[in-house]
Amino acid sequence: MDDFYSPVAEFYDLVGRAHSAGEQALRERLSAMTHIHDPILDIGAGTGRTVMTIAESVPQVDILAVEPAPAMRAVLTHAVAQCLELRQRVTIIPDTVDQLQLPQRLGAVVAFGVLGHLTSSQRQGLWALLLPRLARGAPIFVELLPVEKPVVLPRMMLANETIGQRHYQATLEGEPGPDDTMLLTSCWTVSGGPCATQVIRNRSIWHTFGLEDLARESGLHAQRLTPQAGVLYV
Ligand SMILES: C[S@@+](CC[C@H](N)C(=O)[O-])C[C@H]1O[C@@H](n2cnc3c(N)ncnc32)[C@H](O)[C@@H]1O
């Protein structure tokens, strides 16, 4: 796996994703699912935003948090280690999706911000792994970038935050890459305080498709929850 996240993991939580529409929709849907008893799988758990949402929405159920990028996983482990309840419920798995060894049954799956990092054949492998483990109606929650075909994504502001004397500014832009891909470039500029300005440029690859494409390739039903988030189910 290309690790697109570790070089900028220290900045990840400065991007205003908390309380996004997708996260709110995930929280509402999970909170209404009082019948989930099997573990919930969080693929590409990142620094723990979605793990916390799952833990707060579905009491007691175990959470399998899959995060292969070491620096992202360090932040996740720190967050889980702070809370006794999370320590008992959350299992952190350092593998990529193609290496997973899963239990026989899953209550739900969350894949926020990650499926576009998988090729079509990796996604096929993922569906083959997940579907036998999900009961009828069990949800797979997804959040995607709002680009279904490779396009030019004009530069946009990603973050603009101050911590102490340091100011963190980030932009994101994208351009079409080979085949179905977009090449995304983020640029972080950290300035101020008693140290030199840092400029960190980071590139990642995102395979473009939409919710309906996922439904077609997996044979699942799809329901859109927000412009970027949706749910797939058997
Ligand atoms: C955009 S972040 C999303 C983090 C979190 N789900 C959220 O919404 O805040 C995508 C995460 O997917 C992880 N990832 C990338 N490729 C992966 C793969 N093949 N298997 C599992 N996780 C992967 C990355 O390391 C990264 O932490």
Short account of what is shown:
By secondary structure, the chain is α/β, with parallel strands linked by helices.
Task: Outline the structure in words.
- With about 230 residues, the chain is of the alpha/beta class.
- It has two domains: about 5-145 and about 210-234, Rossmann fold (3-Layer(aba) Sandwich), CATH 3.40.50; about 155-205, S-adenosyl-L-methionine-dependent methyltransferases.
- Helices cover about 25% and strands about 30% of the residues.
- It has six helices and eleven strands.
- It has helices at about 20-30, 50-55, 70-80, 85-90, 120-130, 210-220; strands at about 40-45, 65, 90-95, 110, 140-145, 155-165, 165-175, 180-190, 200-205, 220-225, 230-234.
- The strands form two sheets. A seven-stranded mixed sheet has the order 3-2-1-4-5-11-10, with helices on both faces.
- A hairpin with a 4-residue loop joins β7 and β8 (about 180-190).
- α1 runs parallel beside α2.
- The two termini are about 30 Å apart.
- The structure holds S-adenosylmethionine.
- S-adenosylmethionine binds next to α2.
- One of its GO terms (molecular function) is methyltransferase activity.
- InterPro entries: Methyltransf_12 (IPR013217), SAM-dependent_MTases_sf (IPR029063).
